[in-house]
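Internal tracking record. Fields below are filled automatically when a chain is submitted to the structure queue. Please do not edit lines marked as system-generated. If the sequence contains nonstandard residues, flag them in the REMARKS field before resubmitting.
Queue: standard
Priority: normal
Entity type: single polypeptide chain
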Amino acid sequence: MQEEKKLNGHAKPVRVWCDGCYDMVHFGHANSLRQAKALGDYLVVGIHTDEEISKHKGPPVFNEQERYKMVRAIKWVDEVVEGAPYVTSLETLDKHGCDFCVHGDDITMTADGVDTYHKVKTANRYREVQRTAGVSTTDLVGRMLLLTRNHFRQDSSARSPWTGCSQFLPTTRKLIQFSDGRSPLPTDRVVYVAGAFDLFHVGHLDFLEKARELGDFLIVGLHTDPVVNRYKGSNYPIMNLHERVLSVLACRYVSEVVIGAPYSVTKDLMDHFKVHIVAHGSTPVAPDEDGRDPFLYPKEIGKFVTLDSGNSMTTEKIVERIIRNRLEYEARNVKKEKKEMDLINAMEAQKNNSCKGDVLKISA
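SYSTEM-GENERATED OUTPUT FOLLOWS
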């Protein structure tokens, strides 16, 4: 059992509250929740409805049921509250027995431009963690709207620092923070799956849950960006390899990730990781560069299974959603960026006025 933290001098489990849209759940969301969980013992996450999000931000990419499922699968989350109010109140914290609320150091506002956390901030029941630079839902939607292979090299000038595109810089420390850090036990049945796992979504999630049921230790092999582009074409992958690694590592069903896994599952790979069974979903499998089936070896030795996750969601379908509603999402992104830039300018103006006042006071 995790050691109980001390709050106000009393030893008791500290319950932490986080809330948000969690649309297109990505490693930035996961990192925020990881940091929040580290501040307490039990993490409760409230998720807004589609109606509330549409009112304050614009249409979400994923519906609320998809978003509830995705957040429940993040390994630092203990409980999910469905339909949480958009503005966080003391009544909400008290109802769920939470000591304080945690959010990133970016700003979230209502449709009227009000800070959604102003009530808990005033009551000193608010804590802040560092937002993960280089990723946001707005950024990912923008990448899909561009539909160009240079979507990792956008100009970020005159953009909001919270949702504007910037370069994500992976580090070994970040990988360690996301990793479980445990090796399989000699008695563990090791399962291996591989793929792109781009824009990690509910289809991936349901597949990984089924794969984990086949054994005790699930290893996910992630293909490099050039390999993914070879078999998927267009501007795929939308997320680069290191972004995909963290997204997959945050899933509670995953034990380990092979970064830049070979496309074909070889004898050497299976022997090295002591793989008992290799699984793949029901989606079509492209041949390797030499024309061979990438799962030929595990099939030959009777250690391959095809899994039906029961979920037909794919990365391509997500992109189709975005393109189909392109004008709505473009308007949403522009509106959100404008609100954030207006707030930044207001904060700068307030800061400058404050400095001028100090100078006048000193002169006097």
